[in-house]
């Protein structure tokens, strides 16, 4: 297609990109070439090719983005078809990422979408570094947490504990449940047990209690060693009938197969319209950030409360200290609210992290002990990672075995003999009398090591 | 096949249930104009399994459509847009009956109004003011629901129009449970009395459900306060202290729950003002032509004034709480029993009223009456002004307030500018800013029109920001895909609420503000 044709095709979008305006970003440079530049230089990663991902790919492609990649480890299921509109019944079983990419490229000529049929943890940090914008269409807190910490691990801080602009990666995120959609504040940490153990074991009252009993307790008792697979209908049927029996015993009603699936799989009700709204909002923000064609929410990307959002490409100049959350609520109609949050300095994921000063001889296992005794952290049984690399994993057994050999090694060596570095520790801490899993960011500084980089302003101690 | 359908719709059935789905599948929806806004609206409905759709659009696909409409492609250029969008939608869900009419909506509105009578609901996109007013009249006449949606550059709006919409299953996000702790009935009191709070067994002590704790505590309190429950702040605090005094251990979850729920004992008697408004509505004066909803409300009114003793029928369910299984199950049974008794009384009244107004006493099923009783406290009645009314006599003070409120000013400004661009188009046969060469003049013209509108309405001309006027011209009536998708998403969500009669549809005009995302619902 020649240039004239492209101009015709994008005539509506060009009204925003080629025309000057008064309510635009201060760095906006309207021109007929802006769309070309957007297409050529901006690389966007869409994480997730489900309800949000499908909408995002369409919206981004029709917003002038030309370099898209999409990553999703799932295959298409029948229950996806009420909203994941890029898939058809004959696609069931195929990779979501691959089918979605193909379908959008078929309909929007000129866009290039590279699919990745794998887990997000399977890609190393360098893969994510390559993008200017990362747009999230994820349905699990763990996945979001992971991406969150990946993006945060890029962050380098200057002497005043402010993030260095060049290292900030913009993230656009959406989440939906039923009629509710929002870009949520993601608190790092794993989702704790839904119900107290004693309720499940001793005093069940609801159908859900009976189901979780069968799922979490009875299964292991009867099927020693065999892992429960929520996608195996026979397993699910077993859970259902056990739950039903237990319910009958206690005089509890309401156990159905549908509820069983819902509870065990943590099914989130989902519809097309909500996904469409949230994705469109995200795509629009991405367009505005990338081109400056309008005001963005205080000049940077929407979302994810504790995540610092900024722009790695050339367009943004300002440093970020605040972010907004887009909220779309249902019952009384539609209400879009913009809430401003001030960055939480003590945020455990995107804040500078807890300072840990260590001798270079301290071993990994000694560090782990230290974390349990640390007055502020009191982390028990922590797993330690550095930039996504597993230094020591408490579980699952396979990983524990693989990383056990790191325990007696000096942390200094494991961290590449650098004078300082960031590691993440996931363990159990006591919160309000309950043991919950949490993620902590640790800023390790090794004593007595000459630091050729910036001045060690954050060091409380004095080099030996 | 049925199993597969159930699987496909599983995620949405968990929201609106089989009845909601059935209502969707019976619906016949008409879409006017299938540009991006209309197409995206319809896409969400087709995916959800709406019964049938008819697309009305007389235009041909041009190259510019390829840049913002996902449902057309290179092959369709020069062909009927309605046909191609229809084909695409049909592929999304073959259970939906998709048709198209290659006509301009304007033609049908002006010359064939009876066309619209066949539909459950009409979605009108990208229509200008004068056509909207006419369409609205037609839909009101034919009793067809109307949802208006439009996108324009970085702005857009959605507006519902129908005479009256009644919702029984409003399914609010947060709604207080119906425990009647402020007004316990004899069976509940009896059950609580039979339980000894001071039981020796510590396990039983900390598994006595908070409902029982509060009924006993409230009775003890009333005994010491002339039969009254705690009302003042001081009293409420003392009441909590009383509850705490029953604890034998600081770790007793059930007592903590009781303290947290203590405020329920102080609730005011009777129905909410919201419900009172509904039962006092003149529509309660039913006759043979009254919709079933009002017959049910009439019965509710009688119930409240008689068996209810000022209260509506008991909802019947109780939330989960720390408790021995046996106590909990028994409490559930007590609440269910009263709910059933209330429902029986309601049923009797419903049948009597039906007979009185000359209708078949069995016309409303027991299941429907039961559903109504469960949702009695959450009923909603929404009445919408006609579009003509809204345009000819907008609520000036409201508009003025919106225009000067920092959070709402852009949205309110766009509301006025939508009126202005339509008037511009009526005068100049095109929208402002469509051509680069006319930009400066168009800004001046649009400004003049906007000021005129504001003055007509009785608002200050200065209230509208100059920059917004320029921005509206900059948009040049462009349809931006992301904006269309957003507006389409909102519109489709409202359509679903209207058709399923669940959840509460918006009242007023929803203005999308893509500049700073401060979208608003304007009640005008």
TrEMBL record, chain A:
<dbReference type="InterPro" id="IPR045886">
    <property type="entry name" value="ThiF/MoeB/HesA"/>
</dbReference>
<dbReference type="InterPro" id="IPR035985">
    <property type="entry name" value="Ubiquitin-activating_enz"/>
</dbReference>
<keyword id="KW-0067">ATP-binding</keyword>
<dbReference type="GO" id="GO:0019781">
    <property type="term" value="F:NEDD8 activating enzyme activity"/>
</dbReference>
<keyword id="KW-0547">Nucleotide-binding</keyword>
<keyword id="KW-0436">Ligase</keyword>
<dbReference type="InterPro" id="IPR014929">
    <property type="entry name" value="E2-binding"/>
</dbReference>
<comment type="similarity">
    <text>Belongs to the ubiquitin-activating E1 family. UBA3 subfamily.</text>
</comment>
<dbReference type="Pfam" id="PF00899">
    <property type="entry name" value="ThiF"/>
</dbReference>
<keyword id="KW-0833">Ubl conjugation pathway</keyword>
<dbReference type="GO" id="GO:0005737">
    <property type="term" value="C:cytoplasm"/>
</dbReference>
<dbReference type="Pfam" id="PF08825">
    <property type="entry name" value="E2_bind"/>
</dbReference>
<dbReference type="GO" id="GO:0005634">
    <property type="term" value="C:nucleus"/>
</dbReference>
<dbReference type="GO" id="GO:0005524">
    <property type="term" value="F:ATP binding"/>
</dbReference>
<protein>
    <recommendedName>
        <fullName>NEDD8-activating enzyme E1 catalytic subunit</fullName>
        <ecNumber>6.2.1.64</ecNumber>
    </recommendedName>
</protein>
<dbReference type="GO" id="GO:0045116">
    <property type="term" value="P:protein neddylation"/>
</dbReference>
<dbReference type="InterPro" id="IPR000594">
    <property type="entry name" value="ThiF_NAD_FAD-bd"/>
</dbReference>
<comment type="function">
    <text>Catalytic subunit of the dimeric E1 enzyme, which activates NEDD8.</text>
</comment>
<dbReference type="InterPro" id="IPR023318">
    <property type="entry name" value="Ub_act_enz_dom_a_sf"/>
</dbReference>
<dbReference type="InterPro" id="IPR033127">
    <property type="entry name" value="UBQ-activ_enz_E1_Cys_AS"/>
</dbReference>
<comment type="pathway">
    <text>Protein modification; protein neddylation.</text>
</comment>
<feature type="domain" description="E2 binding">
    <location>
        <begin position="356"/>
        <end position="447"/>
    </location>
</feature>
Automatic annotation (TrEMBL), chain B:
<dbReference type="InterPro" id="IPR045886">
    <property type="entry name" value="ThiF/MoeB/HesA"/>
</dbReference>
<dbReference type="InterPro" id="IPR030667">
    <property type="entry name" value="APP-BP1"/>
</dbReference>
<dbReference type="GO" id="GO:0000166">
    <property type="term" value="F:nucleotide binding"/>
</dbReference>
<comment type="similarity">
    <text>Belongs to the ubiquitin-activating E1 family. ULA1 subfamily.</text>
</comment>
<dbReference type="GO" id="GO:0045116">
    <property type="term" value="P:protein neddylation"/>
</dbReference>
<comment type="pathway">
    <text>Protein modification; protein neddylation.</text>
</comment>
<dbReference type="GO" id="GO:0005737">
    <property type="term" value="C:cytoplasm"/>
</dbReference>
<dbReference type="GO" id="GO:0019781">
    <property type="term" value="F:NEDD8 activating enzyme activity"/>
</dbReference>
<keyword id="KW-0547">Nucleotide-binding</keyword>
<dbReference type="InterPro" id="IPR035985">
    <property type="entry name" value="Ubiquitin-activating_enz"/>
</dbReference>
<feature type="domain" description="THIF-type NAD/FAD binding fold">
    <location>
        <begin position="9"/>
        <end position="503"/>
    </location>
</feature>
<protein>
    <recommendedName>
        <fullName>NEDD8-activating enzyme E1 regulatory subunit</fullName>
    </recommendedName>
</protein>
<dbReference type="InterPro" id="IPR000594">
    <property type="entry name" value="ThiF_NAD_FAD-bd"/>
</dbReference>
<dbReference type="GO" id="GO:0005634">
    <property type="term" value="C:nucleus"/>
</dbReference>
<dbReference type="Pfam" id="PF00899">
    <property type="entry name" value="ThiF"/>
</dbReference>
<keyword id="KW-0539">Nucleus</keyword>
<keyword id="KW-0833">Ubl conjugation pathway</keyword>
<comment type="function">
    <text>Regulatory subunit of the dimeric E1 enzyme. E1 activates RUB1/NEDD8 by first adenylating its C-terminal glycine residue with ATP, thereafter linking this residue to the side chain of the catalytic cysteine, yielding a RUB1-ECR1 thioester and free AMP. E1 finally transfers RUB1 to the catalytic cysteine of RCE1.</text>
</comment>
């Amino acid at each position: 297609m020649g240039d004239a044709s492209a101009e015709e095709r994008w005539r509506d979008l060009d009204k925003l990109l080629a025309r000057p305006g008064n309510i635009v970003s201060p760095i906006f440079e309207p021109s007929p070439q802006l769309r070309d530049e957007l297409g050529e230089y901006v690389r966007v990663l869409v994480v997730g090719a489900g309800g949000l991902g499908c909408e995002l790919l369409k919206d981004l492609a029709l917003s002038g983005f030309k370099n898209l990649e999409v990553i999703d480890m799932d295959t298409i299921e029948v229950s996806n078809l009420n909203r994941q509109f890029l898939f058809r019944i004959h696609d069931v079983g195929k990779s979501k990422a691959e089918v979605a990419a193909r379908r959008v490229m078929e309909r929007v000529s000129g866009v290039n979408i590279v699919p990745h049929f794998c887990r997000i943890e399977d890609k190393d940090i360098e893969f994510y570094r390559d993008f200017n914008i990362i747009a999230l269409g994820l349905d699990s807190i763990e996945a979001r947490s992971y991406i969150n910490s990946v993006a945060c691990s890029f962050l380098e801080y200057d002497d005043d504990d402010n993030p260095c602009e060049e290292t900030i990666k913009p993230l656009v995120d959406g989440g939906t449940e039923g009629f509710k959609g929002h870009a949520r504040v993601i608190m790092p940490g794993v989702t704790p047990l839904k119900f107290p153990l004693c309720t499940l074991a001793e005093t069940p009252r609801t159908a859900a209690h009976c189901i979780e009993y069968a799922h979490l307790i009875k299964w292991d008792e009867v099927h020693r060693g065999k892992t429960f697979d929520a996608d195996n209908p026979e397993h699910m049927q077993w859970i259902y009938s056990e739950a039903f029996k237990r319910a009958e015993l206690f005089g509890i009603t309401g156990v159905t197969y549908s509820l069983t699936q819902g509870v065990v799989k943590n099914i989130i009700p989902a519809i097309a319209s909500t996904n469409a709204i949230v994705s469109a909002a995200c795509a629009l923000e991405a367009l505005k950030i990338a081109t400056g064609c309008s005001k963005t929410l205080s000049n940077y990307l929407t979302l994810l409360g504790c995540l610092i959002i900024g722009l790695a490409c050339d367009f943004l100049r300002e440093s970020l200290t605040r972010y907004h959350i887009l909220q779309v609520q249902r019952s009384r109609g539609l209400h879009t609210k913009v809430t401003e949050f001030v960055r939480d300095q003590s945020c455990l994921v995107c804040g500078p992290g807890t300072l840990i000063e260590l001798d270079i001889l301290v071993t990994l296992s000694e560090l782990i002990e230290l974390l349990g005794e640390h007055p502020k952290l009191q982390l028990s049984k922590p797993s330690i990672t550095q930039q996504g690399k597993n230094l020591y994993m408490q579980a699952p057994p396979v990983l524990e075995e693989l990383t056990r050999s790191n325990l007696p090694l000096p942390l200094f060596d494991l961290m590449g003999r650098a004078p300082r570095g960031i590691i993440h520790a996931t363990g159990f801490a006591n919160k309000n009398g309950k043991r919950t899993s949490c993620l902590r960011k640790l800023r390790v500084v090794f004593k007595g090591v000459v630091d050729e980089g910036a001045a060690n302003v954050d060091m409380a101690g004095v080099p030996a | 096949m049925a199993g597969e359908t159930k699987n496909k719709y599983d995620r949405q059935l968990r929201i609106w249930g089989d009845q909601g789905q059935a209502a969707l599948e019976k619906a016949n929806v008409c879409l006017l104009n299938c540009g991006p806004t209309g197409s995206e609206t319809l896409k969400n409905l087709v995916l959800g399994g709406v019964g049938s759709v008819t697309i009305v659009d007389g235009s041909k696909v041009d190259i510019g459509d390829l840049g913002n409409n996902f449902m057309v492609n290179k092959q369709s250029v020069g062909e009927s847009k309605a046909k191609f969008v229809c084909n695409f939608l049909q592929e999304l869900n073959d259970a939906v009956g998709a048709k198209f009419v290659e006509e301009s909506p304007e033609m049908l509105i002006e010359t064939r109004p009876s066309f619209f009578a066949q539909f459950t609901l009409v979605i009108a996109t990208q229509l200008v003011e004068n056509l909207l007013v006419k369409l609205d009249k037609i839909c009101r006449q034919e009793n067809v629901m109307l949802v208006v949606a439009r996108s324009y550059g970085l702005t857009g709006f959605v507006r519902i129009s129908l005479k009256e919409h009644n919702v029984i299953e409003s399914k609010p996000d947060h709604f207080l449970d119906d425990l009647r702790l402020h007004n316990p009935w004899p069976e509940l009191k009896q059950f609580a009395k039979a339980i000894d709070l001071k039981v020796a067994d510590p396990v039983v002590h900390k598994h006595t459900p908070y409902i029982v704790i509060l009924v006993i505590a409230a009775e003890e309190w009333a005994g010491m306060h002339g039969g009254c429950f705690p009302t003042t702040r001081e009293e409420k605090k003392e009441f909590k202290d009383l509850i705490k005094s029953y604890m034998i251990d600081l770790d007793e979850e059930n007592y903590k729950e009781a303290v947290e729920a203590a405020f329920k004992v102080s609730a005011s008697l009777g129905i909410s003002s919201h419900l009172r408004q509904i039962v006092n509505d003149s529509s309660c004066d039913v006759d043979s032509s009254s919709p079933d909803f009002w017959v049910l409300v009439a019965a509710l009114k009688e119930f409240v004034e008689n068996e209810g003793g000022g209260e509506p029928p008991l909802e019947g369910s109780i939330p989960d709480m720390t408790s021995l299984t046996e106590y909990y199950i028994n409490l559930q049974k007590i609440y269910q029993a009263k709910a059933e008794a209330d429902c029986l009384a309601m049923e009797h009244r419903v049948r009597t009223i039906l007979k009185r107004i000359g209708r078949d006493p069995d016309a409303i099923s027991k299941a429907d009456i039961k559903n109504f009783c469960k949702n009695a406290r959450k009923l909603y009645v929404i009445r919408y002004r006609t579009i003509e009314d809204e345009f000819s006599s907008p609520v000036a003070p409201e508009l003025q307030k919106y225009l000067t409120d920092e959070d709402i000013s852009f949205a309110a400004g766009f509301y006025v500018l939508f009126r202005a661009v339509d008037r511009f188009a009526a005068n100049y046969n095109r929208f402002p800013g469509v051509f680069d060469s006319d930009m400066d003049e168009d800004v001046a013209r649009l400004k003049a029109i906007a000021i005129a509108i504001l003055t007509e309405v009785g608002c200050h001309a200065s209230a509208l920001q100059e920059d917004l006027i320029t921005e509206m011209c900059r948009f040049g009536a462009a349809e931006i895909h992301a904006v269309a998708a957003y507006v389409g998403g909102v519109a489709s969500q409202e359509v679903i609420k209207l058709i399923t009669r669940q959840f509460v549809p918006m009242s007023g005009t929803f203005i999308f503000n893509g500049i700073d995302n401060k979208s608003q619902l304007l009640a005008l």
